[in-house]
Structure formats: C-alpha cells, structure tokens
Amino acid sequence: LCAVPWLAVTLEGLRLLPLDARTAYLLSLVDGHCTVEMLLDICGTELERDEALDLLAHLFQLGAIELRDP
C-alpha cells in the first residue's frame, strides 16, 4: 500500500485500453506522487476500498500503471 502508481502508457495508449468510467476515474487520480493508500483515501467516497484495489490491480495487469517505491 506504500507503492506509488505511475502511468505506464501514453495518452494514445490509454485510448486503446478497455476502461470503464470507474477505472478511468481511478486512473485520473494517478499522479506519480500519491501512494496506493492515499489513492484509496481520495477515492473513498466514490469507490469501496476493495473495489479500488481490484481496479488498481486490473490497471496494473493491463500495463496502464506500474508501481514504484515511494
């Protein structure tokens, strides 16, 4: 939960990914500074914690984000 998600694709590459509105919302919060824990706190009013974690895992599997040490 201390890892920092980073965008791993270009904007053009994002257009090719199958993203629904919830996933796109979460991805819009990825700024290369916030940790996973911070993102969960930020999106807590819009997404349940488990759902947000699942969406982050999905984005990672798609190659849309990478996780870096803080």
From the structure above, extract its key features:
4 helices; two-stranded antiparallel ribbon; mainly alpha; globular; 70 residues
Low-confidence stretches: none
Terminus-to-terminus distance: 10 Å
Radius of gyration: 11 Å
Order of helices and strands: EHHHHE
Report the major sheet.
2 strands, antiparallel
Instruction: Give the overall shape.
Output: globular
> How much strand?
5-15%
Report the average pLDDT across residues.
94
Structural category: mainly alpha
SS summary, helix count = 4
Quaternary organisation = single chain
Q: What strand order characterises the main sheet?
A: 1-2
User: Helix coverage percent of residues?
Assistant: 40-55%
Q: How many strand units?
A: 2
Written overview of the protein:
This protein is mainly alpha-helical and 70 residues long. It is built from 4 helices and 2 strands; from the N terminus they run βααααβ. The chain has helices spanning 11-15, 21-29, 36-42, 49-62; strands spanning 4-7, 65-68. Strands 1-2 form a two-stranded antiparallel sheet. Helix 2 (21-29) crosses helix 4. The chain starts with a strand and ends with a strand. The mean pLDDT is 94.
